[in-house]
Amino acid sequence: MIEMEQVRAGYGKTEVLHGVDFKAKQGEITTIIGTNGSGKSTLLRTLLGFLPISAGNVKIDGISTENMSRAELARNIAYLPQGKNVPDISADRMVLHGRFPYLNYPRRYRESDFQIAREAMRQMGIEDLAGMQMSRLSGGMRQKVYLAMALAQEAPVIVMDEPTTYLDIGQQVKLAGIVRQLAKEGKTIVLVLHDILLALKISHRIAAVAEGKIFWSGTPEEMLEQNVAERLYGVAVGAVRTDRGMEYFYSIS
Fold first, then answer.
1. 110 φ, ψ (degrees, to nearest 5)
2. What proportions of the chain, in percent to the nearest 5, are helix, strand and coil?
3. pTM for the predicted model, two decimal places
4. What was the pLDDT predicted at 175?
5. Candidate CATH numbers 3.40.190.10, 3.30.300.20, 3.40.50.300, 2.60.40.730; the one for domain 2-61+156-251
């Protein structure tokens, strides 16, 4: 579990987060939503330890991240960012970078690291990309490589910022299945999504950010009942129960 308690943070003297309380439980998918400029990215960067905290605390399984080294933090949180430069490296070497927090000096990969990286690529269905240069892969394939790198990190918490970027609808469905499976295996999953329908479909809990605060949090069912999407975006969302579960849609008048 990862949690923020009355966290204040920002950039220099500009405070962006104003006393944020946030919690993501083990074995669950918690999705952060909000309009552009609401503070989602700042919340994520603070959660990951990229930004200093002026007040409050961030904890992983009850331990303050202030008491963790960068390597310890990396062993506890794997991060899949939204915008990434394309390195001049092969896909399998990129995935191996997920093992870096576990290496001691001198920085040499062990056979177990190679095995874990290969298993992560197998889980993502990209074993055939092993020797290919990242620059030659499509955006969707690169996204799968980065996700495999996050899996190879073997952290209990996985944070993903817009993980469906560059993915077509078929790949999005597969990614949703992978994320759900990771949660079933006991991972704490934190997502930032603009796709509200996808957030409702796969999340256990959703947190809505506005003006540097979490103004609402709850289950997808509660989000519908309380018209949170309409309050946040001005767009109504409806749902219908089918034999495949709940299906969500935008209500267009």
1. -95, 170
2. 40, 30, 30
3. 0.89
4. 84
5. 3.40.50.300
